[in-house]
Design brief:
184 residues, four-stranded mixed sheet, alpha+beta, globular
Length: 184
Amino acid sequence: MRARRPPPVAQGLRSRFWERIPLAAMRPAEWEALCDGCGRCCLNKLEDPDTHEVAYTRVACRLLDAETCRCSRYASRRTYVPDCVVLTPATIGRVAYWMPPTCAYRCLHEGRPLAPWHPLVSGDPDSVHAAGISVAGWTVPEYEVAEEEWEDHIVDLDGDEDAPGRAGPALAAAAGGGDGGEEG
């Protein structure tokens, strides 16, 4: 189990900054602290070219650490994945539509509050996992699935806080992926 994170003010962040400071006025540390560590943004997505409807897959970026739900090469990720989106206040307006509905960046951009399970609200970095929001345990790395098969791995991340965490492992088991361990 990971150690509890100190309250945000102890990390040099302004108290409850996400409720008071616009995204464009946040300090770099505050911007980074908005990430809840769910890993959903690192899922490969399929977008309909006509409707721009986005479907998430359980196929994760090759750099996603499936256990921690964090990028294994965050600082240099664009070296390995050149089309990785660097999310900034300047880019959020263009990419928010494909960010997960539970994403703090998207929520704040759309004028919605952070969820109670968000680590900034709960004070617990594991609350995103305990709430079943993270992708821990139900992804498959992109190097194991041909791109033409991604459609077979679509998952529903409709914003229902209870569904994704339960649906992910169930989908993985139904697809024969089990828990990511031995093939069966």
